[in-house]
Amino acid sequence: MIEEIRNEFKNATDLFTNVLDNGFWAVEIAYFPSLCDEKIKDGVLVPLSYRFDPDEFRRMLNSNPKYEHADDPKEWANLILKGYVLLKIEGKHFSFKSDRTPVTQIDAPTVESTLQGPQTAFTEDLNINMFLLRLRYNVPSLTVEPFDKGTLSRTSLFVVYDHRLVNAKILKALYKQLDKVKLDLLQSSGQMVKQLTEKNHRVFPTILQTERPDRVADMLSKGKIAVMLNGSRFVLLLPVRLYDFMHAMDDEYEAFWMVRLLILVRYIAVALTITLPALYIAIVSYNPEIFRVQIAFTIDGSRAGVPYPSFIEVFIMLFMIEALIEASIRLPRIVGSTATTVGGLILGQAAQQAGLVSSIMIIVTSVVAISNFVIPNTTFSQSVRLMKYLFIIIAMIYGISGVAVLFFALIVYLCGLRSFGEPYLALFTNETKELPK
Amino acid sequence: MSRYFYYHVIYVGLINVMLFVPWTLVQHRFDGAVSAMAIAVVLGTFVAYATTSLYLRFPQKSLPDILNSLLPRWLALTINLLASTLWILAGILVIYSYSATIQQFFNPDMNPYLFLLLMTAAGVWGASRCTRSVQFAQEIMLLISAPLIIMILFKAVFNPWLDWDAIRVTAGYIRTPPSFVSLCAATFVFAGYNTLAVFNRLLPQGTQIRYRWIIPLFCTFFLLVSFFVPIGFHGTVGVAQYLYIWSVTADSMIMEYGFVYRVLYIFLLLYTALSLMFAMNTWHTAMEFLKACRPKYKPDPDEYPTPKINWLINIGFAALTFAYAIWTNEQRNQLVNQFWLIARTFSDITSVVLLSFLVWKTTRRRRSQIPSDAAAPES
Amino acid sequence: MRRAKLLLIGLAMLLILPTSGCGFKDIDKRFFVVAMGIDQGSTPSNYRVTLRLAIPTSQMESGETKTELESMEAPSIAEAVRHLKSLVDKELDFGHCRVILFGKSLIEEGVENPINWLSRRRDIQQVAFLGLAEPNAFQVLKLQPQSERYPGNALFLSFGSEGTESSYILTEYLFDWVRRQTETGKDGFLPIIRKDIDRNSYRVDRVAFTDKKKLRLCLTPAETQLFNISARRYDKSVIAIPFKGARIVLALSQVETHVSISHEDIPTVTLHLHASGFLEESPPNFLNGDIPKIENQLQTEFNGELQDLLYKIRNSEVDPYGFGLHYLAKYFGGSKEWKKWKEAYPEITFRVDSRIVIDKAGLVQ
């Protein structure tokens, strides 16, 4: 056995192979020490060495669930890579499950934090994640189906749903899509999202990624399907609607009217962040008569020293703010705050004083940036970030009427989207199930 | 689900401004517009009730489906083609007059065809979606814009500068015999039921359209407002000199404490939404009529992704819009508008007659079928 | 395939982008016209157009605003405006032109052409304020009041109801004026704007009446206030009468009017007016049962004054109240009724039936 395995892993110097001879038996053993943990001591080494009793050992081989027959040589390489120990005892092949699970602390959510909701987030370990989910949604009808994806990484994933509530059509569509997955390395949930959406160059996400067990439990109870990935903090939820992206888990826990107000604020923020730079261009360059006289004169006065057309001004400021956001994500936390202070406060102030941009534009930029952060979901917030450039371009050509027309086109686009056959944007959605199929 | 039906009723009631309905009525205000409006309220309500009831007899079937299954092929084909012409023209007229309006008020220096390009592009984009998406988009756009439009209408009605004497003087001309064009124009306000021609597919079996009194109530309100408010603002004589009557009327109002001072701009932006919705709906309907002309056509209100044929047909419509824009001018456009309003009235009445005939035909067939089915096991 | 599509979209964008040049004009390349004046030119067929242009500054302080005045004479308004464009360095923008003034001599001659130009231009607001400038629009626009916070706002504020609310100022919008120019049985009015004597502010306290062609009558400030109360139901005004050697001033808080016209050969117009308010000035101790008496005296006094005004207006053959239209509306009349009214109008009798109620006596007894 050892030769065959050695042949397969020619250059893997970290592979451990040996023949253990305790005087009675000569046992061949092969495993990767880096993939296996301490269980190997209690499960293999101790019973084989100074506590050795052939009868007891045989009994153990048959009864311990961690031991399994591994007679197919083709499977060996695969087993070893998954953290199994391969043994050849008395001419028979066994595998012993001893995969190392790093001790993971359950972490607090980092991208979807709440004020008073549950403070746990998923970890990068599938079993712990399953535990976290079962903690919140533990019913007999919860169905878990395992899959392996990625030709190289062989990442295991679970498709989880409540079989009493789930829509079979959507489940079928998901399996069809899962069959189509072609990836070498599956390392993050984002890759999975791209693979599962029909056209992967979509502007808006149609699958929700979340790190919150309570959100997954909540969605499962609404008949949605969760896809959990090993090695990823994020769980995919589908099918989803636009509202799910605008929904923070706090909304479930706070007072009713407060939540309604906050949701309204979020939608207004989205509208602002998309249209405000475009409106600035439209007002400044095409239709200054739309707003009140005072506003026109204020803008006119503050733009007096700006040497180039409005859209270049907008592009400069938006470039600065985008660069700032990118920088503050990548930078370590300590440096990050310095960068934002320098960029936001000093540069903005200086740019305005130097007459490069108007002071109104500084306000517009900050409103755009702040409004964008109001969106609870990062993926969606990035899509919205992208949308505003489209609006800027149309405002450059057509002014304010272009903005209105593009807004219409955007609504039509969102209404035309489908998330696994379900409408993405439609009002009063619980009634749409009555629609004829 | 019948709420979708009422969305159609309401936006068609509101869009009349863009199809020169108030203009047509105002031209005839001293010779028959008011009496024609009174008749239109009765006639429009009757046709609306009749058409909706008839469509409900054919659950989940659009007009082309009904025609294809019950009429000889050549006849169904002719009717489908004629109907689609009428629908295409509706979209073209609204897009043309709206882009002319907006070009007039927003971008007077801009090349008119450039703006037409934007409007047709948005129309093509909207109309090529599947029927269900069109319905969703329409609901959202209407719920965003209709409350504001109705607010502007109420603001106009309660405006202190509105001259009720002028309105009363005009209303006094109800004693004149009705004029035919005005009648056709006024019945258009009630024509929202027409969109059932395709959207009936989405009404599930057994839907009842309740609260049908909404149709006469709202549409009469829209009709009265869109005719009388401009007269109240511009006088019995002065009103006739304006071409874009409602734009000028909206400009006669201010919002002293609003973000935007002149109501005109809010009005125009809201009507962008309405006009695009109208274009989306009419072109979509026209497209479905055209698609139903293919021999192997299978209706599907929820096709996703958008098939290529949708794009091709709608781009054809856009090309027609450009051709129309090149051919037309203000006089011709008004003439075509009036022609369209008249043709539409006839087609509505024809469709009521046709549908009643088909209902009668199916019930007779069913009746003759049942005895033969019952007789079958015995033989 | 996808690359070809992208290339196509890119090409289309490249084709569209250069066309964005038309209509694209930054706000700092525009000159906002805040007020416009139209006068009679040096020869009767000429017009003199005066524009007040705003020069915006980043700091907005009272008295610090800068405006520029440009004036040009030409046979038509359109030509004058075109010519004015050559005098300034930026594009003229009428989008914020909220005040339009006509010179007195122009109104005396007739304003058909200017009105035509104003209603044809899409960028002239229908809600622009109109006024009659005395002695002419150029002189009035030349004034720069100290209190102006941004260019032209003193003019906007005095006409509109956002700023001062005075019973001597009548507001007239362009659309209303245009409507009155053509309406049967209703004639136009224009507030008269003058320079104040101290040359520091505007003075708007009179009103002028025009028929369909030209100026017919100018009222005194007191009559203007009376017209404002009775025709426009303006309730922030006062009624004052002498009473026992002192003066009683009633500040109105609510005014309702109603006109009834009899259907006789010579119709009688009855103006019912119901007003209530509180006393701002009155003799001391007036609570001693004098209220009905004061009310009575107010009514008779007011009736007399208003009746005189109505006859004065009638005698100059104008109808700014719109009695004619109201008559037609009341009896659903056509052209025949209108002819009859027109013949009867110079003979018509007026009655005023007012009911004035003192709600409160102010803060003191």
TrEMBL record, chain A:
Q: Which Pfam families match?
A: GerA (PF03323)
* Bilayer-spanning residue ranges: 264-286, 306-325, 357-377, 389-414
Entry's Gene Ontology cellular component terms: membrane
Alphabetized InterPro entries for the sequence: Spore_Ger, UPF0353/GerABKA_families
Superkingdom as given in the UniProt entry:
Bacteria
Keyword Transmembrane helix appears in the UniProt entry = yes
Keyword annotations for this protein, in alphabetical order, are: Membrane, Transmembrane, Transmembrane helix
Q: Name one GO biological process term.
A: spore germination
Family note: Belongs to the GerABKA family.
User: Which protein, by its recorded name, is this?
Assistant: Spore germination protein
TrEMBL record, chain B:
Arranged from A to Z, the UniProt key words for this protein are: Membrane, Transmembrane, Transmembrane helix
Q: Does the keyword RNA-binding apply?
A: no
Annotated TM spans:
5-26, 32-56, 77-98, 110-128, 140-158, 178-199, 211-244, 264-290, 311-327, 339-360
Q: What is this protein called?
A: Spore germination protein
Question: Which organism was this protein described from?
Answer: Cohnella lupini
The opening ranks of the lineage are: Bacteria, Bacillati, Bacillota, Bacilli, Bacillales
TrEMBL record, chain C:
Cellular component, GO annotation: membrane
Q: How does it sit in the membrane?
A: Lipid-anchor
List each copy of the Spore germination GerAC-like C-terminal domain by range.
209-361
Q: Which Gene3D superfamilies match?
A: Nutrient germinant receptor protein C, domain 3
One of the GO BP terms on file: spore germination
> What is the similarity comment for this entry?
Belongs to the GerABKC lipoprotein family.
Q: Where in the cell is it found?
A: Membrane
Residue ranges occupied by any Spore germination protein N-terminal domain in the UniProt entry: 25-194
Its taxonomic path starts at:
Bacteria, Bacillati, Bacillota, Bacilli, Bacillales
Q: What is this protein called?
A: Ger(X)C family germination protein
Q: Which UniProt keywords are present, listed alphabetically? A: Germination, Lipoprotein, Membrane, Palmitate, Signal
